[in-house]
Amino acid sequence: MFSQVLLMQVVIAAGVAVLATGLFLAPLSKQLDQEAMRRALAIAETTAQDPQIAEGVLTTPPSRNGPVQEEAERIRRATHAEYIVVLDRNWVRWSHPTASEIGRRVSTDPRNALAGQEVMEIDRGTLGRSARGKVPLYDTDHRIVGAVSVGIAYDSVRARLINAIPGLFAYAGGALAVGALAAWLISRRVQRQTRDLAFSDISALLAEREAMLHGIREGVVALDRGGRIRLLNDEARRLLGIGDEAVGRTPDEALGAGRTTDVLAGRVTGTDLLTVRGHRVLVANRMPTDDGGAVATLRDRTELEQLGRELDSTRGLIDALRAQDHEHANRMHTLLGLLELEMYDDAVEFVGEVVGDHRATAEQVTEKIQDPLLAALLVGKATVAAERGVALWVSERTRLPDRLIDPRGLVTVVGNLVDNALDAVAGTPHARVEVELRAEHRTVVLRVCDTGPGIPEDQRELIFTEGWSTKKPPAHGKRGIGLSLVRRLAERQGGSAAVGGAAGGGAEFTVVLPEALTEPELQPAPPGRSAGTAAVAEEEAR
């Protein structure tokens, strides 16, 4: 490849040098002809202004020893002209370098000069091809008495041009040498940058790259150093809903304002950033490149939502059933004791109270929280809280539709905050945890309050640091992960997580998740309550 590039560049440099030389020589020849004709005309004008010439034509016959011939030859020798011919109005020569031609008529038509016009031309006469200048000859009364024709041999002009060619080729050779050196340096640099790959190898790599980019099931968007889109693969076009018209434009121009645009433009940074484009939930990552640009990858999370909902519902059901195990055992023991004591009325009343309390709890949660994952989670957490002697309340202001973009992420946030709140109030009198979930257009606001000891003001930022905890770490793991995960999940969605003091004492955690809900018209028809949530409600209704 190196030799091919060098050879091509040398050939190009040589071609340019030859072309430049030819383009220079063509006008030079014309310029030299013009200079020769102007020089011939100037000599003719000088000769015609000599008063001896006009007077000799009027007063003497044409003769090889006459005053006109002598004066014309003197001027010819002084100016190195090829010939100076003086003629009268009858076209008869009065002077000529060849004496035998004196007294004869000229071979070329002098009528324009005899009519008072100046003539410049290149023509062939008795002395061969020459550059000519012809002017009228005036007497003292300014009457035309003849004409003066001066010729400069064209061969002498061509000789000047030929003499100039070696110098021109010397310049052209120098330019070619410089071009060859530059071509060699460029070829060496290209060789290093391409790792000495042949053209066929580079072509194959480009073809493989195109096939890979357009074949993978992940969107790829490449941006140049000016922030303009320079490449989109097929999956990126599908996920973003744009086409080739976006190439060469910035994300703001191609997509409009929004979180997706901010992520692609680099105004929002991080890994695995959640964003929404139309009805699709995307996970975006952006990586800067060495040339000042960036490459962003997009993964579609929309198709995984249904599977995630079912998996998390099953997991929530298992946790709820595990937490209810001891509680049901205690209740069955109590019921067995009442029956053995033959306290049948009290047994019926006890069963009714237990069933009624559980039915009310499940119905209240599912009425306020329409997302099945969160509903199942809170029902399970309520059972765990009751087992630990803590009252778990769902605020009356709670209203959450089933339009969550990332329900699993919100389940993680709510689960961690509720678990921390239960740990904080465990063993305290009148222990209570309150959860509030409300939707504000597309933003979800979560508030978890407890009646525990609260968090000192100087430690309210430290608790979100990974590994920091006031609790003793267990032998099988470590603490200080939950709250750090909560803040990372919130910030990944462009939101925030903060802690303050509750009104009645204790701590109050607030998480704000902007663009956490899809638009109502983009939400697909709800498939109904999941099997896990239905099973919890049915189990508690028995």
What does this molecule look like?
With about 550 residues, the chain is an alpha+beta fold. It has three domains: about 1-160, PAS domain (Beta-Lactamase, 2-Layer Sandwich), CATH 3.30.450; about 200-300, PAS domain (Beta-Lactamase, 2-Layer Sandwich); about 305-540, Heat Shock Protein 90 (2-Layer Sandwich). Helices cover about 50% and strands about 20% of the residues. It contains 15 helices and 14 strands. Strands 6-5-9-8-7 form a five-stranded antiparallel sheet. A hairpin with a 5-residue loop joins β5 (about 220-225) and β6. α11 (about 345-370) packs antiparallel against α12 (about 370-385), α11 (about 345-370) runs antiparallel to α15 (about 530-540) and α12 packs parallel to α13. The radius of gyration is 52 Å and the shape is rod-shaped. Mean pLDDT is about 80; it is low at about 475-480 and about 520-540. Its main location: membrane. It comes from Streptomyces argyrophylli. It is an enzyme of class 2 (transferase). InterPro entries: HATPase_C_sf, HATPase_dom, His_kinase_dom, PAS-like_dom_sf, PAS_fold, sCache_3, Sensor-like_sf, Sig_transdc_His_kin-like_C. This is histidine kinase.
Question: In summary, what is this structure?
Answer:
The chain has 542 residues and is α+β, with helices and mostly antiparallel strands. It has helices spanning 2-48, 51-59, 67-79, 111-114, 154-193, 199-215, 234-240, 251-255, 259-265, 305-340, 344-368, 372-387, 407-425, 482-492, 531-541, and strands at 83-88, 119-125, 128-138, 144-153, 219-223, 229-232, 273-277, 280-288, 294-300, 391-394, 432-440, 443-450, 496-501, 507-513.
